[in-house]
Amino acid sequence: MLIAMMGNTYTTVIAQAEKAWRQQYAQIVMVLERSVKREKLAACQLEYSIKLSDGGDSGMETRGLMVIKQTKKTRARQRKQAISNWKLIGRKVIKTVQHYGVDVAMYKLHSHERFTSLTDDVVGGARGERLSTSRGW
């Protein structure tokens, strides 16, 4: 149950981070658009937009932006990825404890070193084969 709760927390944090990233990206685009002259903006909009309709009697054409590729992660997909990440980290911790022993592994896992660089020499990538370590611990 603890792993499920941690997976749900991970999913929530990732969703919030993605939302914050999109907001920051939108703010950057707005700042850049404000720094460019109106004539240049109009030329860029004509270049990158597509014609939707002529406008008929009013004489104004309607234009829009076409989305070429849009990726949308569903909650189920995010949850599946979170569970997969927790399982991967769990396997790396177990391999590290088996390789170094409990005391040294606890010190290494709670130190300021990158966890992935520590376990890459213990766990051979996705295959899980044991490699020799060059650190001498």
From TrEMBL:
Keywords for this protein? Repeat
Please give an example of a GO cellular component term from this record: plasma membrane
Q: Which GO terms describe its biological process?
A: calcium ion import across plasma membrane
Which GO molecular-function terms appear in the entry?
calcium channel activity
Q: Which InterPro entries match?
A: TRPV
Protein known as? Uncharacterized protein
Which species is the source of this protein?
Answer: Plectus sambesii
